[in-house]
Amino acid sequence: MGRNRQCESRLKVSRIQCRTGERIYERYEVAGKDVDGRRVRRRFKTEPEARHWAAWKECVLQNAPVQRPMLTIMTEGQRIKAEAIISRFGDDALDEAYDLLANLRRPQTEDMEMQDAVDRFLVRKREKGIRPRTLYQLERTLKVFMDYVGEEARVWKISISDCEQFLQAHSRTNKT
Questions:
Q1: Cβ contacts of residue 22 below 8 Å, gap of 6+?
Q2: Domain with 48 in it
Q3: How far is Cα 21 from Cα 39, in angstroms, rounded to an integer?
Q4: I want to staple 153 with a disulfide (CB 3.0 to 4.6 A). Which of 53, 56, 148, 149 is the partner?
Q5: Rounded to two decimals, what is the model's pTM?
């Protein structure tokens, strides 16, 4: 059997007296704190109205997702972006994005400059016996890519987005 839990109410209904000039009248006020700590205050003409609204609001507050303040190393901009991703794509969105990035990111295996990597690549292609024209085209394309990222660039630091930006900047469709 489930336990019968008593939750402490966050809202309080109280009778207050309001004054408008010489006229004094009674109202019922519901006051308390919202889920995020903001003050909630609303006035009603009758006590049943106030109690009904307080009960409804209490249900809303108890069913709201719990948000707790916590320390983070994220900047305010990063936190806002993360919250936007979660609100747009759901609670699992950050986990899925992390998994995707973890699979795409290559660990540093060897600290090699771009020039060394291109030289090794071309030697292996020559050993495989590719045609001279194909080898020439590869050399020219890789020379342009090295100019784009830098000959001293570390191979393991070159990202997929660097390659995509290079291809976009040097695609034939852009050269009309």
A1: none
A2: 11-63
A3: 27
A4: 149
A5: 0.37
